[in-house]
Write a structure and sequence with these properties.
The protein is of the alpha+beta class. It has six helices and nine strands, in the order ββαβααβαβαββββα. It has a single domain, classed as Glutaredoxin (3-Layer(aba) Sandwich), CATH 3.40.30. It starts with 11 loop residues before the first strand and ends with a helix. It comes from Ramlibacter rhizophilus.
Length: 168
């Protein structure tokens, strides 16, 4: 499992972009994790799936609600990573109203989750291999804090916990 001091995995995630911008076309766009995290402080959280109950009712809304406080604590970007494709993450971003606050990044083949050692096997529930629930503070591509939930729990990966760590 990834640990404090480790670099983020050198993988590419996918982000659905609604508005064309510099170097970003509308639709799925690759996000090179190493390049995108270089020189930044990132509040990164992973969760099992888009539109799932805890993820939609608590996890994502907590980070949206703490956006300003996290920025004041020195966080440049907030990333949500889930084992879903970019289209699903884009639809979930619209549903959760994350634009300008949380980057919704698809890890469609679970490459990031596997490389971090943070997978959750939900095959018995018809969901296949997913990301476990966790949060981490990342500075210049390296893990500074790591909060991994026990299966089925939501106690340490919340925005309140990561905000306190960012302020420390």
């Amino acid at each position: 499992m990834i640990k404090i001091g480790d670099p983020l995995p050198n993988v590419t995630l996918q982000e659905y972009v609604e508005v064309e911008g510099n170097g970003c076309s509308i639709g799925p766009n690759p996000v090179d994790v190493a390049k995108a995290s270089a020189g930044k402080t990132i509040a990164l959280f992973g969760l099992p799936g888009a539109f799932t109950p805890t993820c939609s009712a608590k996890h994502v809304p907590g980070y949206i609600g703490h956006f300003d406080a996290l920025r004041q604590a020195g966080v440049d970007e907030i990333w949500c990573v889930s084992v879903n494709d970019a289209f699903v993450m884009g639809a979930w971003a619209r549903d959760q109203k994350t634009e300008g606050k949380v980057r919704m990044l698809g890890d469609g083949s679970a490459e990031f989750a596997k490389a971090c050692g943070l997978t959750l096997d939900l095959t018995a529930r018809g969901m296949g291999l997913r990301s476990g629930r966790y949060s981490m503070l990342v500075r210049d591509g390296r893990v500074v804090t790591l909060n991994v939930e026990a299966p089925g729990k939501f106690e340490v990966s919340d925005a309140d916990t990561l905000l306190a760590q960012a302020r420390a």
